[in-house]
Specification:
Elements (H helix, E strand, L loop, with lengths): L5 H24 L10 H10 L1 H35 L1 H16 L2 H12 L5 H23 L4 H9 L4 H36 L8 H10 L3 H29 L15
Length: about 260
């Protein structure tokens, strides 16, 4: 497994701590009121007090994001494989993927709630899946097409079967691209699930708690729930990154890493 250097971990941690210190110092020195911007210390204390509520909301939002992430990723990978094998399918789906990339999720959420009911989590999961589909599909398809013709010719010269060629050449070349799409999609899944919660449905997610806290002018509490959402997004990203390190530990990196987003 490719290791992560100490500098890679320490530098962001030091920068983050410094930013929090400057934030707290500014709040203290300029006497900024909590309804304008609460300090990190107050947010942390509030986070600790309502941790059980935050954890319950995290399970709901995280569950919807995870289901949407899996649904969107599986559909995108299968579609990319078919598109890589059949050029007509790729040409037919290009307009669909283009439309999916520009669909405003904010406008789609109320429509899905009307279709599936405001008391179900289905709409939030579908919105997360749609957000995940595009980056995973585009990056996976690009990765599947990275195999050079000379490598394909070499496998034919060795009389390799299609599965042997796919397993030894095509898939290893595509893995870094696939995981780049998954890392982008991991954050989008959480963001999309949160956005969907603002437009109705069950009132047990993090975004709903943020809205209700802000409506009650308890901004410190709202920031505590925001912190919970940030930690949830980081958890999704870190797990995806760990899976990438595990899956590509023996695979050589391509000359460039794509970053095709939504």
């Amino acid at each position: 497994m490719r290791g992560i250097s100490t500098r890679t971990l320490v530098a962001p941690a030091v920068f983050g701590i410094a930013a929090l210190m400057v934030w707290q110092l500014a709040v203290t020195v300029f006497n900024i009121q909590p309804f304008v911007l609460p300090g990190p210390i107050n947010i942390g204390a509030q986070f600790e007090q309502v941790w059980p509520i935050i954890w319950a909301g995290t399970l709901v939002t995280g569950g919807n994001a995870l289901i949407g992430f899996i649904m969107g990723a599986v559909a995108a990978i299968l579609a990319a494989i078919i598109a890589a094998l059949a050029r007509p399918f790729d040409e037919l789906t290009q307009p669909v993927v283009t439309v999916a990339a520009v669909i405003p999720l904010v406008a789609l959420a109320p429509i899905l709630y009307a279709m599936f009911g405001a008391d179900a989590e289905t709409s939030r999961q579908l919105i997360a899946a749609l957000a995940v589909f595009v980056p995973v599909y585009l990056n996976t398809l690009r990765g599947l097409r990275q195999v050079k013709p000379v490598h394909r010719d070499l496998m034919r010269a060795y009389a390799a079967t299609p599965w042997q060629a796919t397993r030894t050449v095509t898939l290893p070349a595509a893995l870094p691209f696939l995981f780049t799409g998954l890392r982008i999609a991991s954050s989008l899944a959480v963001i999309s699930a949160l956005i969907a919660e603002y437009f109705g449905g069950p009132v047990d997610g993090l975004a709903t708690s943020i809205t209700s806290s802000a409506a009650g002018s308890n901004y410190t509490l709202a920031y505590a729930f925001v912190l919970g959402a940030i930690l949830l997004g980081l958890a999704f990203y870190c797990v995806t990154l760990a899976l990438e390190k595990l899956a590509t530990r023996h695979a050589p990196l391509p000359p460039e890493r794509p970053a095709v987003g939504r």
